[in-house]
Amino acid sequence: MPGIGVRYDLATREQGRVSVVAHRDGSRILSAYHQDDPDACALSLRLSSGETAALIDALMPTHHSPNLLSTTGLGLVAERIELSATSYWNGRLLGDTRMRTETGVSIVAVLRRAEAVPSPTPGFRLAGGDTLIVIGTREGVDAAAAILGRE
């Protein structure tokens, strides 16, 4: 969802449907749909970033994952930014974005189709449809999204 965030859809084992829209400001919209009509929303909740963190902790307590880095207390965010097919950066080198210099954000991986490229080098050639995993401050990630959204 360019300019808005990322949408995640989940079908449960009991054929239920849930979606989450993750906005760039950290808020989320959690929606559940009627089983007999997948277009009819039965529940929609707008959650602040703090409420989202509390829900995540309730679903997956951090004490069960001691090796995972929690970035929220450090003032960092990690997000996925999708590169559109019409992006200015489609076919260009990652280093040409000057991402770290311009925003302070690190691109820690690129997801392309069914593969992941960890720690891509400046010589990595970007392609439309790539999803870049970035980490940095909220402001830096927003700036990165604006740069990568350039058409």
Automatic annotation (TrEMBL):
Pfam families reported for this sequence: KhtT_N, TrkA_C
InterPro entries named among the record's database cross-references: AAE_transporter, KhtT, KhtT-like_N, RCK_C, RCK_C_sf
Single GO MF annotation: monoatomic cation transmembrane transporter activity
Domain RCK C-terminal, chain residue ranges per copy: 66-150
GO terms under biological process: potassium ion transport
Protein name: Potassium transporter TrkA
Organism the protein comes from: Streptomyces fuscichromogenes
Taxonomic path: Bacteria, Bacillati, Actinomycetota, Actinomycetes, Kitasatosporales
